[in-house]
Amino acid sequence: MSQPVRTDVIIVGGGIMGAATAFFLRKRGRSVALIERGLVGQQASGVNFGNVRRQGRFLPQLPLANRSRAIWGRLNELLGEDAEFLPSGHMRVTYNDEMTEKMVTYAADARHYGLELEILSGNTLRDRFPYLGPEVRAGSYAPLDGHANPRLAAPAFGRAAKREGAEVFENTEIATVEKDGEGFRVEATDGRVFRGAQLMISAGAWGNRLSSQFGEAVPLETHGPQMAVTEPVPYALETVLGVSTNLTHEVVYLRQVKRGNIVFGGGNRTLPNLDTRRAFVKPENTLSQLTQITRIVPALNRLNIIRVWSGVESYLPDDIPIMGPSGKVSGLHYAFGFCGHGFQLGPGVGDVMAELIDTGQTSTPIDPFLISRFQRAQIL
Amino acid sequence: MANPRVIIIGAGSAGVRAAQTLVEGGMRPIVIDESARDGGQIYRRQPEGFSRPKSALYGSETARAEALHSTFDDLKSRIDYRPRHLAWNIADGHVHVVHEGASDALPYDALIIAAGATDRLMPVKGWHFAGAYSLGAAQIALKAQASAIGRRVIFMGTGPLLQLVASQYVKAGAKVVAVLDTSPFSAQIKALPKLIARPDVLFKGIKLVAGLKLSGVPVLRGITPLEIHGDAETGVTGVSVRLASGEIRRFEGDAVGLGYHLRPETQLADLAQCAFDFDAQTRQFRPRIDIDGRTSVANVYLAGDGVLTQGADGAEISGRLAAFAALADLGHAMPDSRINTLRQDRARMELFREGLAEAFPWPHSLAAGIPDEAIVCRCEGVRASELRGVALEKGASELNRAKAFSRVGMGRCQGRYCGHAAAEIVAAATGLPLEKVGRLRGQAPVKPLAISTRRVDS
């Protein structure tokens, strides 16, 4: 048996959360082992829509989202690679007065968190966004948000972490995690052992399988996002668009990449298979999306889709992630279950988790996301 | 099962014989076909109103083409035939079919996929210029539209289709500048013991080449493609190759037909979640089937060139076998002697298929020599240098990873044309075995799907 790999921190799960945390820990001089079962950024981090969106989030999450947005703005210089971040603006649109009212209230509240949103309707909306469909009643425009390429961002963090000195272990599946007198002991299915004083679990949909080993099971559900992309057409849609609605099938979002393809997703999701790691798109969902995206931009009706895809995302019943220290074991940290809205947060989560692991505290509030909220719920 | 719902995808040689066998077994299958008319590729029927004689279209295979067409004509009242229908997805026991903007989900108790094959292609510098076609496309232009792809046509690649299409062009009166074959003649000699499994076909092949030479078309073997010359404005102007002797030769022409034998169209099998295996001889992943065409997924069967390139005659046999397998699995009593004969025939087809693969090998070693500036993925304009870059500098040695980083295979054709070559380029660059580089995962839609498509529930 070979010697254990010893680092200050072990990170299990190489999605954007784990990869970014590894990167920022190296910036703080901590030694890190980043362990990924497949390839870095291959699951939820790689298959999501690519939204770099702050508006519409749970308000107490905005400080974290703001911190993340600041990092997105200097990502290229930080990583030395282009993840195609475009601060092209983001707009949520409504189809009725009820949702418009909610949107107006949200905009007023978001201002207290430093997020400026512009509410547009009537001719102002039509003049600025002439491609919107007749059903669109109002829009909430966030000029500094935008989108990036999820296929590139997490792997870029992983490579940058490696360049900074992190040890990255891909195709390494973890079987057991435990703490003994020497600190954390993490064992892979092939028998390799990793040792560290601190451990972070950022294993996405598989996070619960690991947190359960520390007696911190959580009601994590998995879903497969339903994505599609059109053939490339001349770049014309700068703004990322999404629908604000209470009806699941109406929830769609779309963005055009510089290359010209329009990416969209939303609506109903599917149940992925955690063991085969495959998730499929239901054809019915694709067909439903086709009718919904043309309500926002009717001209899309003339295009073709060329590919659909899905992946494995994890959700919690209160629709906010698990992030922060363990409620039971000192030196143990979590960052998983980002409920389909983790991509924008990724760089910020990495920065905050590195700060937390390095200093024991964080300058950005994360209390609502502690895993202990589920233990409290069980006691009650 | 009272009235089992059986669906056949494809109305080519395999699909038609499968339909016939099912009808004889008392079924009324649904036959879905993307084309306006039956016949598939090799026995493609010209559009209504076109009047080239069948002997001109099908040559030595006229009798077989006529037999297949008349069988299908007779079947039409006893099947549910749906031409111009595209099977764009398979999920949860349903085939999703789009026709004139409406998408319907058809449930099945048995599904026979006979999706056919397309050209297997190896990029060459300049193959993105207008006037560069696949061999199959060159043949379709002739059969379906009675037109040639150019005034002075060069055919390059390898495989039985290379000489066939060239000689069809000559017969149709087109000017064929040269037939440039990457396979050395020695490979064909070595494969003779297997090719003799079908002496008639072997003889026809020899006659084709002799006929081409007789009409003054140079047939050069063992060549290495170097470049298709041309520019964005005028398109193809010529082709440069290195001859077997080492001499570099340039041929002038305004169109190129390219192809290196065929690759099965396997996306539907992939969407049906059939298991694939790596075939070391032809260096590609193929759906796993038993001798009758059963896949790893219950009630899903594969037939024809869509799984094994045994050619049109082989497709007719495998279509019948797949239908018998489906009938047997649905609880019908089977004529054992008939099935045994078909299986023996198929074994002969399989031996011949292996012989062809030896005689006209996929020239995988060309991948290493493709110049960096050559475009690999024509849909997305990805150059060999970019693909090699993500493989070597970003660790993308698995093909789907290389796609995610470089956009190779991410365009309209979804890697159907560049996928095999992209895998070879990554394998050559990284030194990994091709099997480890893997294959592109199939995703719906099989062909582009209009956003204006609306769901119907029949």
Structure description:
The complex is a heterodimer of chains A (380) and B (458). Chain A is an alpha+beta fold and 380 residues long. Chain A is built from 11 helices and 20 strands. In chain A, strands 1, 2, 8, 9, 10, 11, 19 and 20 form an 8-stranded mixed sheet that branches. In chain A, strands 5-6-4-14-15-16-13-17 form an 8-stranded mixed sheet. Chain A has a two-stranded antiparallel sheet with strand order 3-7. In chain A, helix 1 links the parallel strand 1 and strand 2. Chain B is of the alpha/beta class and 458 residues long. Chain B has 3 domains: 207 residues, FAD/NAD(P)-binding domain (3-Layer(bba) Sandwich); 140 residues, 3-Layer(bba) Sandwich (FAD/NAD(P)-binding domain); 73 residues, BFD-like [2Fe-2S]-binding domain (Arc Repressor Mutant, subunit A, Orthogonal Bundle). Chain B is 36% helix and 23% strand. Chain B is built from 16 helices and 24 strands. Chain B has a 5-stranded parallel sheet, covered by helices on one side. In chain B, a hairpin with a 2-residue loop joins strand 5 and strand 6. In chain B, helix 1 packs parallel to helix 10, helix 10 packs antiparallel against helix 11 and helix 13 packs across helix 14. The longest helix of chain B has 24 residues. Chain B is globular, with a radius of gyration of 22 Å. The model of chain B has no long low-confidence stretch (mean pLDDT 96). Strand 17 of chain A pairs antiparallel with strand 23 of chain B.
Number of helices of chain A: 11
Structural class of chain B: alpha/beta
DSSP E strands of chain B, number: 24
Largest sheet of chain B: 5 strands, parallel
What value does the average pLDDT of chain A take? 96
Radius of gyration of chain B: 22 Å
Which class of the largest domain in chain B in CATH terms?
A: Alpha Beta
For the largest interface in this structure, which chains are involved and how many residues does each contribute? A-B, 33 and 31 residues
Overall outline of chain A? globular
Give the overall pLDDT of chain B as a whole number. Answer: 96
Gap between N and C termini of chain B: 21 Å
- The span between the termini of chain A is 46 Å
Query: What's the architecture of the largest domain in chain B, going by CATH?
Result: 3-Layer(bba) Sandwich
Strand content of chain A: 15-25%
